[in-house]
Specification:
It contains ten helices and ten strands. The chain has helices spanning 30-42, 57-60, 65-79, 105-111, 124-143, 173-183, 200-206, 255-272, 298-309, 325-340, and strands spanning 2-4, 16-19, 22-25, 48-49, 148-151, 189-193, 212-219, 244-249, 276-281, 315-319. The chain is globular, with a radius of gyration of 18 Å. By secondary structure, it is of the alpha/beta class. The termini are close together. Bound molecules: N-{4-[(3-aminopropyl)amino]butyl}acetamide and zinc ion.
């Protein structure tokens, strides 16, 4: 399997996120991607190539122009205020506050953020565009007839909606790729999100559409981040009604419960008649993950890969979460090798 990777991910290196009332070192670190790349090489998965630049047009197919311009200029405008720390928001446009875009970077940061864990740094724009390019190059390869591609995307993407960042995500790499697949002839695309956290951004982007099926297996938002989306009764709206499936599972759920949900999701994908599959591949479902509470073991990820291969679809994997840095490489490589076997 081909891997798309760019060193530019290192340019996203936030200092801290707000956890349990204090600023703690970011869980989403450059070492994550380094470990995944090392495992891909060690397992001889296939060629590792540099993504091709696609420019902003395919990003703007999914993301709001105001948001994109904000991300592009935020760091420069933030440092112009005399600050040299990461940019984090300090309030949100919550219920009954006006939905007006503030004029300056301080207010815009609040308007365009979902949480206080997604710092904008000097290299955020470059890293985020490189990740989108990896996903887009992967989509391009699928269009060209490749069976499966791994986009080693960092920063991750599935919490980012058209007009906000959050959950360590800036551009929704998987959604951008799914849209590119649609734009280049794939008629029906399924996006399956197996990250521990609900893919709120991806769901939101495709919620009113029947050409992109979204399915997510995740910790129940009644107790787990991102809390405000990912419930079982979210089925899609308008044209999209019946094209959104959430499988929220109680925190602490066992491996067999997780694989039962996976089987339900795979059945829906087969029924949908997808031409291509995009997998939002988070491995924070691992038992040892420091911020999540499922119980998959390293060999279970091989089983996941094999089950995904059973759909017999052109498949693009986009890396999402996974914060047990030591085992992340083996966990991800197991999915990819399980798929190939
Ligand atoms: N105490 C991804 O996996 N913070 N994002 C959770 C838990 C946000 C995870 C805090 C987690 C975001 C891509
Ligand atoms: Zn996650």
């Amino acid at each position: 399997m081909l891997t798309l990777y760019s060193d530019s991910h290192r340019l996203q290196h936030g200092r801290s996120e707000l956890i349990d009332g204090t600023l703690k070192p970011c869980f989403e670190t450059p070492s994550r991607a380094d470990m995944v790349l090392a495992a891909v090489r060690e397992r001889d998965l296939g060629d590792v190539i540099h993504p091709r630049r696609h420019g902003l047009a395919p990003i703007l197919r999914v993301h709001d122009e105001g948001y994109v311009r904000f991300l592009e200029t935020a760091w420069q405008r933030w440092t112009a205020l005399g600050r040299d720390c990461d940019a984090l928001p300090k309030m949100w446009q919550i219920r009954r506050l006006r939905e007006t875009v503030p004029e300056q970077v301080e207010g815009q940061l609040c308007y365009y953020s979902m949480d206080c864990g997604t710092p904008i740094t000097a290299g955020t724009w470059q890293a985020a565009t490189a990740a989108a390019d990896a996903a887009l190059t992967g989509a391009e390869r699928l269009i060209g007839g490749e069976r499966a591609v791994f986009a080693l995307t960092r920063p991750p993407g599935h919490h980012a909606a058209s007009d906000y960042c959050g959950g360590y995500c800036f551009f929704n790499n998987a959604a951008i790729a799914a849209q590119a697949l649609r734009d280049h002839g794939m008629r029906r695309v399924a996006v399956l999100d197996v990250d521990y956290h609900h893919g709120n951004g991806t769901q939101d982007i495709f919620y009113r559409r029947s050409d992109v099926l979204f399915l997510s297996i995740h910790g129940d938002p009644r107790t787990e981040y991102p809390f405000f989306l990912g419930h079982a009764d979210e089925k899609g709206e308008d044209e999209g009604l019946g094209y959104n499936f959430n499988f929220p599972l109680a925190a602490g759920s066992c491996v067999s419960t997780w694989f039962f949900a996976l089987d339900c999701a795979l059945e829906q994908i087969a029924r949908f008649g997808a031409d291509a599959l995009v997998v939002s591949l988070g491995v924070d479902t691992f038992r040892g993950d420091p911020i999540s509470r499922f119980q998959l073991e390293t060999p279970d990820f091989t089983t996941l890969g094999a089950r995904l291969a059973g759909l017999k679809l052109p498949t693009l994997f986009c890396l999402e979460g996974g914060y047990a840095v030591g085992p992340i490489g083996d966990n991800v490589a197991n999915v990819l090798c399980g798929f190939e076997a």
